[in-house]
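Handout, page 2. Input:
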Amino acid sequence: MSEDTPVVSLPRLNEPAPDFTAESTHGPITLSKLKGQWVVLFSHPADFTPVCTTELTEFARKDAEFKQMNTQLMGLSIDSIYAHIAWIRSMEQNFGVKIPYPMIADIDMHVAKLYGMIHPGASNTSTVRCVFVIDDKSVVRAMIYYPLTNGRNVDEIVRLVKALQTTDANKVSTPVNWTPGEKVIVPAPTTTEGAEKRMCEKELDVQDWYFSRKSL
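Output:
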């Protein structure tokens, strides 16, 4: 990196989400005004593209489920408001799906650069497929990046939000492929005495002192 190369500060896990105000299909949006809700901010490369169309319509189908989790969906690309509106109308007319969440028009790439959505190795002019899960305290809790060529799994994003909210509510962790209703992982003890006691805790499913699960 040369001395003239600007240093860009990108979001990091468990740190405050960079705030922004941007135009959207629902009017101006300021991220910090959404504190108290969870937010799933996702970018797509461009309007009127087939992979993105499948993603946006699937997010729309899951919108009510996200709302039940106190979670606001927000899409973003560097297209104009007019392109967004035309594409939303096209998806409703051609696929029978109404887009209920706001689409941010990031023409000046302000939000895209703030969140590291532009990857020159993939494209200099399009946002890659990013997903940022931001909690109700405006803290970044998860980040997922996808290539331009492959669509996201929206069910996994639903699962991830549920897992994060379960973690927060119960001070536990969730194992691989966890879904609601399955056992969660209990924090391991941090002393030798605690490890000995853990092996005798009948209310837990104890595999070893450091690996215990329970039902919620």
